[in-house]
Design brief:
Number of strands of chain A: 13
Helix content of chain A: 25-40%
Largest interface: A-B, 28 and 28 residues
Oligomer: homodimer
Number of domains of chain A: 1
Radius of gyration of chain A: 19 Å
Strand order of the largest sheet of chain A: 3-2-1-4-5-6-11
Largest sheet of chain A: 7 strands, parallel
CATH topology of chain A: Rossmann fold
Distance between the termini of chain A: 37 Å
CATH architecture of chain A: 3-Layer(aba) Sandwich
CATH superfamily of chain A: NAD(P)-binding Rossmann-like Domain
Number of helices of chain A: 11
Shape of chain A: globular
Strand content of chain A: 15-25%
């Protein structure tokens, strides 16, 4: 897939100061796109103005809420590509407060889609959802047509957002793509707490030479994808006409246990240690067990494939945070 | 199932001035329950104070919005059973305005569940959803574990509401039941427009001696359930401990074509006529094709089964509207 299609095109990234959004923004600026990022810098989330420091003179940063329909209406106008990454992303916040998931992830997505429908229906919209929409799974690797049994409000709200995106695609003929992201790690993720972004949280623990807690027996399998690979996939699906209307797993086809992950992190960092810890009640209730995706659909449709090994990804990640620790700790 | 369990118990019915809610309220009063109905009488919807006329001295009517968290918090207190029927129920409103589905059906359900969790976690909660959550189906009759591919925002919002109800059941240990209702018809449905409640709309056309429009070739199969049977099922599942945590189809296992339905209505009414009509673009996009449910799960769990033939149900329905036409036309 030729990413030169983005050269000179107008792009909006919601959640564009966050982890994946900012890496995407940097890539798009480098590809010659005219990038606007929308972000509200919601407390405890990934938004960090420093994330776009390398390109800050070459993009527009617009601070506003995805639920602000008047602002969103203005910001979507004239955009050729809209990457929708804004969202509440704590897996457990919904246990104590159900409204952020509903208001930001569901209503916010509807606000964006409604604005696009009314103002710029030719835009391509790529929405990032989560592999959490599957919940516990019977068969591995997980294909996109597996049953969706999301466990928490975060996962439920992402599934609903996907369905809203598809609704606008089908009923209002918008060009939409849903991507179900696995565990993405790498530069520019928040490092202040472990409520989401488990790999990066473990990286922080290692860099601080602290104990990494591995829940349960540590043998649960997951897939971990480096953020540059993730950004590459987002760009390639956005540039693929054949992807429109589709829902795609976006992760790594090679499963890895938490023990293996943790040992690699400690080895690459040269610091840190690990210990077993019992699941908390909340984590146990939310824990869907082994997961790794079948990614043949996105590979066939967009020509994308993961390029970075876990070790190489961790090396780059750790180097970044060593250099910019003050901006993230 | 012994419905005497409701005798002397405190019950809240959201949407209790609507079609099914009011029939449920009347039954519960007759069973000796202390009934409060919550309804906002939302324009164009089924709420009608006349619906509870037969029992109006024996229940409490509280007009408020399901999204009004302070009011809802007060109303759930001390209730043994909460039947959640309030909802935006137009299938096509979401095509022009996505927010009522999201705000009323999704956020409203969360508001109710949050209030119950905080204030009266021992209550039994029965939530009525729609068979529309399945979307187009591959196999008939449809079992509860069939894939859910809701087409419109109404159906998406109902599926999300189900998942929110289940979330509170699982994570917060509330006693919850989801019922996926098919086409219910009978006394006390609104008769002013045909945006929902197709059988009742056809009944009105027949009583007005007008032409009933049958879309497509009229051979699409559906199931039609009489409201007294529906109320009986709601009461029996609410009274069944074994039902808690479950999701159940609630419909009629005997499929019927639209042509057959319309001919029966015209025959029973002794007036009206019918004609073929092409699908509108919106209806075609939303039309999921043949549907009738497998209802063995609810039968086995609650001991319920449908008792009323289509002809008998229509006879009672038509008699009611002949008598009370002024309150519904």
């Amino acid at each position: 897939m030729d990413l030169n299609v983005y050269n000179g095109r107008k792009v909006l990234i919601t959640g564009g100061l966050g982890f994946i959004g900012s890496n995407l923004a940097i890539s798009l600026v480098q590809l010659g796109a005219q990038v606007t990022v929308l972000d509200v810098l919601w407390p405890d989330h990934g938004g960090n103005p420093f994330n776009v420091e390398p390109v800050r003179k070459d993009l527009i940063v617009n601070i506003c809420d995805i639920r602000d329909k008047y602002a969103v209406r203005t910001l979507v106008k004239g955009k050729d590509y809209i990457f929708h990454l804004a969202g509440q992303c704590s897996h457990v916040l919904g246990h104590v407060d159900p409204y952020p998931d509903i208001d930001i992830n569901i209503r916010g997505t509807a606000t964006l889609m409604e604005s696009i429908k009314e103002n710029f229906p030719d835009a391509v919209i790529v929405h990032t959802s989560t592999r959490g929409v599957y919940g516990s799974v019977d068969r591995l690797p997980v294909k996109e047509d597996a049953p969706t049994n999301p466990k928490g409000l975060y996962e439920i709200s992402n599934l609903t957002a996907e369905k809203i995106v598809n609704f606008y695609g089908e009923i209002h003929q918008l060009k939409t793509v849903n991507l179900r992201l696995s565990n993405i790690y790498g530069e520019r993720a928040q490092m202040r707490h472990g409520k989401f972004g488990v790999v990066n949280w473990f990286v922080r623990k290692a860099l601080d030479d602290e104990a990494i807690q591995v829940f349960g027996d540590g043998k649960i399998l997951r897939d971990f994808l480096y953020v540059e690979d993730c950004v590459d996939a987002i760009l390639k699906t956005g540039a693929s006409d054949r992807a429109f209307g589709g829902t795609f797993n976006l992760g790594n086809e090679e499963p890895c246990s938490f023990i293996e992950l943790v040992k690699t992190i400690i080895d690459v960092a040269g610091s840190g240690r690990w210990e077993y810890a019992p699941f908390t009640k909340e984590r146990a209730a939310q824990e869907p067990g082994d997961f790794y995706p079948d990614i043949s659909r996105i590979k066939e449709t967009s020509g994308w494939q993961p390029e970075t090994t876990l070790r190489d990804g961790l090396l780059k990640t750790i180097e970044y945070y060593r250099q910019h620790r003050a901006m993230y700790w």
